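Entry 12.
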Amino acid sequence: MSFLGKAQTVMPDGRIRLIGTVIDGDTIPTVYLRDVEIVAPLSPEAAARQQAYLKLRRDVIRVYPYAKLAATKLKYINDQVATMTNERQKKRFIKETEKELKDQFEQELKKLTVTQGRILIKLIDRETGNTSYALVKELRGTLQAFFWQGLARLFGENLKSEYDSAGEDQMIEQIVRQIETGQLPVQSVSK
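Predicted 3D structure (tokens):
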């Protein structure tokens, strides 16, 4: 692969014209090349940390749009329910909205890994300010929240887990900030 620097020119017949320097009767071409950085190989520990970070970054990028959508939908639901006076009308609206969301996203969410689901639970707390347990309890009632929490516990998860941006979720927070500043691209989910 050739690299053309600033002092090189491609002639119409395809030849490359270079600037040269004459030293003791010899013409020595001047060619500008890119800088090359030589990096020492990673230690096994550093390689494992980097691999874990890249996996976490991939998982956060995958589920972040769903957490943002959950926050948007929750605000929409709360705004709509706030205008309703009839309790039956509120419940019907919540059930209809839940059915629409389930029809639209159930297949995509079933494809998430357990780790991605755990991250999604954390990010929903970050985006909405409520744990997943609190959201289910608010929208569907205590019995439903208890049921889903029990099911989550069977799989070693906790819907009551809170997002801790300064503690155990610090790496997730850094990745989310990179997403929010546009440093990392994410795919949006259809609304």
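Annotation: DSSP finds six helices and four strands in the chain. The longest helix spans residues 44-82.
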